[in-house]
Amino acid sequence: MKGMGNMGNMMKQMQKMQKKMMKAQDELHEMTFEASAGGGMVTITANGKKEITDIKIEEEVVDPDDIEMLQDLILAATNDVLKQIDDKTAQTMGQFTKGLPGGMF
């Protein structure tokens, strides 16, 4: 019966860790991330759920004869903000998966 007590403690620890993980994930989803390209000509804002919440484009970068440059700036800023979210997610959630065998989560 001694082994059952250890199993109960382990389950409590797992539940506690799961609550902490959910709290960390909720906090992450509430965070705001921002990236710009072209020296601030294009700025993309997103939340931790990877939802784009705002796009700012400076008037002087809007050139009907060079739409490709504007597209490139938007892509660069968007990819940068998404990378920031991925990095922060890995950093935040990685603390919970340290030491766990691969494939558990």
TrEMBL record:
Any coiled-coil regions, as ranges: 7-34
Q: Which InterPro entries would you find in this protein's record?
A: YbaB-like_sf, YbaB/EbfC
Alphabetical list of SUPFAM superfamilies matching this protein:
YbaB-like
The source's superkingdom equals Bacteria
Compartment list: Cytoplasm, Nucleoid
Gene Ontology cellular component?
A: bacterial nucleoid; cytosol
Q: What is its main location?
A: cytoplasm
Task: Please identify the protein, giving its name as recorded.
Answer: Nucleoid-associated protein FHP05_11445
